[in-house]
Amino acid sequence: MANIAPKILSYQATNRSIGESMPVFVVLGNWTDEGIKNVKDAPSRIEDTHDAVAKAGGKMQLYYTLGECDFIMVLEVPDDKAIMKILLWLGSKGNVRTKTLKAWTEAEAAKEISEIQ
Fold first, then answer.
1. What's this model's pTM, rounded to 2 decimal places?
2. Which candidate, 1, 88, 113, 14, places its Cα nearest to that of 48?
3. What is the per-residue pLDDT across 32-51, written as a single tens digit (0 to 9) for each?
4. Structural domain tally of the chain?
5. DSSP string computed for 16-80
6. 70 pLDDT above the threshold of 70
7. CATH for 29
8. What Å distances lie between residue 49 and 32, 82, 115, CA to CA?
9. Domain around 59
10. pLDDT beyond 60 at 4
């Protein structure tokens, strides 16, 4: 049923302390003409994306939306290289176009803000 993500997405996090949180990315997405034409295949495509994210050492939550975006994904992945590989793989399928935002938790931002002199 679901294609297993290509080996290029296989990634193991290194230099990460136990308990250290992974970077969070918010991905805003829209279907391309091809993607909406084959919208019935969306659930299996999303399953493939979950597999790719897991294979990269991360996790993902997807929300379908109304309005300017067709969906929003919230991803936690080991680093910027992992999100780049995932999004390039996803975009190469031709079904979606994405815009990506890097996000910080309140605690992470508060720590950085407290260090401003």
1. 0.81
2. 1
3. 999 999 999 999 999 999 99
4. 1
5. --TTPPPPEEEEEEEE-HHHHHTGGGHHHHHHHHHHHHHHTT-EEEEEE-SSS-SEEEEEE-SSH
6. yes
7. 3.30.70.920
8. 16, 13, 37
9. 22-114
10. no
